[in-house]
Amino acid sequence: MTQSFTPEQFRQVLGQYPTGVVVVTAVIPGESPAALTIGSFSSVSLEPPLVAFYPSIGSKTWPKIQAQGRFCVNILGADHEALCRVFASKAADKFDGVTWHPSPGGSPIVDGAVAWIDCEVDDVQTLGDHFLVVGRVNALETASRDLPLLFFRGGYGRFLHSSLAASESALAGFLPVVEAVRAELESVADECGTECNLAAHTRDEFIVLAGAGSQASPQAGAPTRVGRRLPYLAPIGTTLAAWGDNSDVKRWAASIDSESGDGPSQWHDVLSLVRRRGYVIGRGEMPYAAMEEAIDNRRSELADPTLLGALSEVRKTMLDQPSLDTPDEAYDVRSLSVPIFLADGRVVQMGLYGLQTVMSNETVRFCIQRLLEASRRCTALLGGSLPDDFPRPIEPDASDR
Ligand SMILES: Cc1cc2nc3c(=O)[nH]c(=O)nc-3n(C[C@H](O)[C@H](O)[C@H](O)COP(=O)(O)O)c2cc1C
User: Fold this and answer.
1) Which of 30, 61, 307, 338 has the most crowded Cβ, counting Cβ within 10 A?
2) Does ligand 1 come within 6 angstroms of the Cβ of 37?
3) Number of independent structural domains in the chain
4) Domain harbouring 327, CATH code
């Protein structure tokens, strides 16, 4: 059968298929290392562990790598567009200015790569104008929590959870916020040793915009909470409600459990305490475990009855904010959050989630201080301003209650 398309059509149609971007590297004795950008990478087999990619027959770099018999595949992060371009160039020294460290097999792991896969050459076949290279995997690791770089229709991009993309009109304004605070989110997660999330609300929903730290990391194997959507009802998003506008807060507080008797007036006291202190504490292993289970098992609707029941238990812990005035006391803290004030007056919240069952007073205070510092830093970074009465980052004491 004769071919019914032009090379341009071939490229254009195949360009509809998005790929990740890797850099295949090797150390070359007596020269600087060799590397080339590859979009045609894929996993092949688990037993034995094999991966593959297709370098062009015209590549000057591939024969050098092949001669070493080993290589390292570096998965590039979403911010690595410039690196991707350098490694796709014909530059004599593609590693000029690039920092790296050796893989177990000695090949370069580019600093900041999302993950690396250390291989030896298992098989090379010629297929048309490309080689098929099969690599046998000897070692591999996820190295960072960054999102990977994607290549699609000739342009670069990044992965966006469909749940975020779905309500893009409501959330679009928050995406630059995520970018701006990502580094701070990661340091807070590292320093406090747990997951740190950024969340915002729309009229009816509380949405986790970004996450860093253990649960959110790919190493943990647990599904990320990024993209999670919950009803914006008390106690979800207490930090947002504390600095939210009045009509929103009425709806938020009047909602969850009409039989509980609490409503705007009871929440009024909690929200003003939160405004004085600058943070919210959520406690109790059981209520949080039940809430997580209800979220995992809920049917599609946002306000699933089991979830509302579980939220009502979490609510009780929020209504009773501990004073932190007894130094040798321990707390079963599950969440801690602070507001970040945006230039346009909106508020997002940064929060630690999944903390230890028993936290000493000192650890809780450390995490609160770190979060308050992050709140100031991110607010300044985003051109927002803290309310005049927003607490300085000092130790909370009994007089706060
Ligand atoms: C996003 C992207 C994906 C690429 N994927 C491949 C690929 O799968 N195979 C390939 O041979 N070249 C691919 N290239 C082009 C090579 O990186 C480039 O031709 C090569 O680095 C040229 O240098 P060399 O002659 O030193 O090998 C890709 C380039 C980019 C920007």
Assistant:
1) 338
2) yes
3) 2
4) 3.30.450.40
